[in-house]
Design a protein that fits this description.
By secondary structure, the protein is an alpha+beta fold. It is built from ten helices and 13 strands. The chain has two domains: 124 residues, Probable inorganic polyphosphate/atp-NAD kinase, domain 1 (Rossmann fold, 3-Layer(aba) Sandwich); 150 residues, Tumour Suppressor Smad4.
């Protein structure tokens, strides 16, 4: 098979080992035709993935974190018939690796074994305007935390960077009013954060969507209502461990489509890509991605 590895040298921590050489050797030993593209700036992975899919390669592999995977998926999706013609692989080499964790392949050797074997499974994709994502799109406190975490900080201290960024966001973030509409229902509230999830984890291992399955045709919606700072801090451990679903300050449900209209423009982090919007319409695309991954 023709395989293109798209690697982000800035992924992971400064002490983390670069798995790229091992991946190349393993795949070539298995008889695959392997080519490597390394990114130098944001957008490179998306462009490389688009070009690779348009040229008809069999698999495009993201070697990096959730942000690199996000660019690769959007690049393949933007090529003519890209998602049908081209499978997507993942070697987790980032700081969070949240989608890989949901798939049971947070360890690179598990991902590499699936890739070498060419094991394919269909997973869902979520559309947000003209962008798509595999794992999660979140706003409020969560997006502000991501905005406070630089690549350099993640390389220096790893997942501790999210704790540092989160402490700042707790002190600075102002809740936002929202109207949420889904399947003929609606609610209005002031929110501390929200997340639309296809995968179970977000922000470096926090289980914000414990019932999420990436191949069930449904997205998990988690809405955390505005509370006092002390109450929100008390809720954070439950949000991280997945024990928040029935909390009085949380609305949690599953749906195929949902629209959120905000009282002001806010930051929204979608698999590492920070956007700004006052209205978000999320639509599920069941089984849209041919992903190289272990069986569920």
């Amino acid at each position: 098979m023709r395989i293109v590895l798209i690697a982000n040298p800035a992924s992971g921590t400064a002490q983390g080992s670069d798995a790229l050489g091992e991946v190349q050797q393993h795949l070539r030993s298995a008889g695959h035709d392997v080519h490597v593209r390394e990114t130098a700036a944001r957008g490179d992975a998306e462009r490389f993935a688009h070009d690779s899919a348009a040229l008809g390669v069999d698999i495009v592999v993201a070697v990096g974190g959730d942000g690199t995977l996000n660019e690769v998926v959007n690049g393949v999706a933007s090529a003519p018939d890209g998602l049908e013609r081209c499978a997507i692989g993942l070697i987790p080499a980032g700081t969070g690796n949240d989608f890989a964790r949901t798939l049971g392949m947070a360890e690179s050797d598990v991902a590499l074994a699936a890739l070498a074997a060419g094991h394919e499974r269909r997973v869902d994709l979520v559309s947000l305007g003209d962008r798509v994502f595999l794992n999660a799109s979140a706003g409020g406190f969560t997006a502000e935390t991501s905005a406070n975490v630089s690549s350099g900080m993640k390389q220096a201290v790893g997942t501790l960077a999210y704790l540092i960024g989160g402490a700042r966001a707790v002190l600075e973030y102002e809740p936002v009013g929202v109207r949420v509409e889904w399947e003929g229902r609606s609610l209005e509230a002031d929110l501390q954060l929200f997340a639309i999830c296809n995968g179970a984890y977000i922000g470096g291992g926090h289980q914000l969507a414990p019932t999420a399955r990436p191949d069930d045709g449904l997205m998990e919606v988690c809405l955390v209502r505005a509370t006092s700072t002390l109450d929100f801090l008390a809720l954070l451990p439950r949000l991280s461990s997945g024990h928040h679903v029935d909390d009085d300050d949380v609305a949690y449900f599953r749906t195929r489509a949902v629209t959120l209209s905000f009282s002001r423009t806010i930051k929204i982090n979608t698999d590492g890509e920070v956007l700004e919007a006052a209205r978000c319409e999320y639509v599920m695309r069941p089984g849209a991605v041919r992903l190289i991954a272990p069986a569920p």
